Amino acid sequence: MNSTVKTSSFMLLYGAILGVLSAIFSFMLYTMDMHYQGGTFVTIVSVVLSTALYAVAMYQFRNANNNLMSFWQGVKIGVGVAVISGIIIVLFNLLLTRVIDPETMTKAMNFQREQLIENTEMTIEQIDAQLEIAQQFQTPAIQAAFGLLFAVIFGFLLSLIPAAILKRSED
């Protein structure tokens, strides 16, 4: 089996695992009514979970490939895992915001409004104008596009370190 086939199979497997784990984490946040708030904790968990799955996918690929993996193969695997998991998460978020909790966007806008009132010098009119502009970007198509774009960029950046650590070439 050539390395391209191996690479794509590792991307699919670990992308699916990361996507399902991320959806479970999102659902846990939903059950605690925290799914629209974001924050440092959510970011840290997402970064650690993603980086760990990218590294495991690269490590498993390297082991299956005679202990060889170039830096760019590692990055490719990480980005592939990110894209597959990104597709799963985008679909889950559409399910969450359109079926499970259609009020998610309203809750998010209200939360953001409260945060802006507490933490900025903006007037209520300025805050409402800013939120009105932001609401125009809340269509499912735009959310999906930004979600996938974010997954690719996030996957690329987070793949650089494990790919550099795990790369091995023939001596």
Fold and architecture overview:
- The protein has 171 residues and is mostly helical.
- The chain has one domain (3-166).
- It has 6 helices and no strands.
- α3 packs antiparallel against α6.
- The two termini are 22 Å apart.
- The relative contact order is 0.17.
- The model has no long low-confidence stretch (mean pLDDT 88).
Short description:
The chain is mainly α and 171 residues long. It contains 6 helices and no strands. It is 81% helix and 0% strand.
Largest sheet: none
- Number of separate helices: 6
Number of domains: 1
Shape: elongated
Summarize model confidence as the mean pLDDT. 88
H/E element order: HHHHHH
How many DSSP E strands?
Answer: 0
Quaternary assembly: single chain
Helical content stands at over 70%
Poorly predicted ranges = none
Topology:
Blueprint: H1 3-31, H2 40-64, H3 71-100, H4 104-119, H5 124-135, H6 140-166
Helix pairs in contact: 1-2, 1-3, 2-3, 2-6, 3-6, 4-5
